[in-house]
Design brief:
By secondary structure, this protein is mainly beta. Helix content is 3%, strand content 45%. It has one helix spanning 4-7; strands at 12-18, 23-24, 29-34, 42-48, 54-55, 66-73, 84-91, 98-105, 108-111.
Length: 115
């Protein structure tokens, strides 16, 4: 019988929060690209954040080591100075999941590797 670590599906997820209003940012279009396998970025998946501002699994396939880009289309957010935010990340450990939150305000943004 396999242990729980063998059954785990490792993901790339995100959570977008509108820090000006103090609410999740629902309906944000997020695209995941793979950067290191071709001459140009390859779009892997795209999704909209749910009512809680989350996308629980952008990968939808086994996690592979490499370079990825999360691109957030935030042009529809009221009063946002930013229209698109791209976050490039390098995955080396495929035995864990990666959560990349985005905190968004009209003239600032913050992102980090969450847990």
């Amino acid at each position: 019988m396999a242990d729980s670590s063998e059954l785990a599906t490792h993901t790339i997820s995100t959570h977008v929060l509108d820090t000006q209003r103090g609410v999740p940012a629902a309906g944000v279009h997020v695209t995941l690209y793979r950067l290191d396998v071709a001459a140009a970025p390859i779009r892997m998946t795209q999704a909209l954040t749910d009512g809680d501002g989350r996308i629980r699994d952008l990968l939808e396939r086994p996690l592979a080591a490499g370079d990825y880009r999360l691109e957030f289309d935030v042009a529809h957010e009221d009063g946002s100075f930013f229209t698109k935010i791209a976050v490039d990340l390098r995955i080396t450990d495929t035995e864990r999941s990666y959560h990349v939150p985005l905190l968004l305000a009209p003239y600032s943004m913050t992102t980090y590797r969450g847990s």
